[in-house]
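Figure 6 in text form: structure in, sequence out.
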């Protein structure tokens, strides 16, 4: 009886541990999701850094080269082919950009709630207990008559 109860308790505890380690809020599935989100954020950070360098170089060319200003103005339709570009002194640089990039948020994945894991572990433990008790239940043979004895031959 004690072994059956201990086996049921062990099955409950071990199944709870396995469920929480794999599908729980801090389990393997949640960790893999967080790692994938972190990789996406690192990739986005690298792309934003590359764009920042590209725009910084373009901004420096626009501030220093009158030809670049003329080409850019003509490509945007602000300056005609017969117009001349006069570059005025530049304004002081802004401290923060208008649109620094797209913000990537982290949303944890749906995981197995702890109460559900506990319920599943308890049900498994009860199942093991019932199976253990059913195995130990005495089965009496009813094919003998009450006063009959068996003799060893």
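Output sequence:
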């Amino acid at each position: 009886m004690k072994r059956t109860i201990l086996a049921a308790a062990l099955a409950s505890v071990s199944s709870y541990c396995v469920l929480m380690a794999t599908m729980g809020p801090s389990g393997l599935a949640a960790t893999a999701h967080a790692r994938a989100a972190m990789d996406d954020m690192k990739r986005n950070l690298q792309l934003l850094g590359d764009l920042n360098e590209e725009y910084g170089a373009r901004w420096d060319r626009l501030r220093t080269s009158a030809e670049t200003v003329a080409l850019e103005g003509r490509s945007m339709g602000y300056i005609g082919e017969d117009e001349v570009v006069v570059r005025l002194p530049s304004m002081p640089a802004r401290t923060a950009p208008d649109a620094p990039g797209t913000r990537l948020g982290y949303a944890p994945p749906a995981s197995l709630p702890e109460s559900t894991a506990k319920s599943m572990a308890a049900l498994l433990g009860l199942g093991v207990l019932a199976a253990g008790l059913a195995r130990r239940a005495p089965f009496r043979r009813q094919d003998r008559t009450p006063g009959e004895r068996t003799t060893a031959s």
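Caption detail: Residues 2-87+115-132 form one domain.
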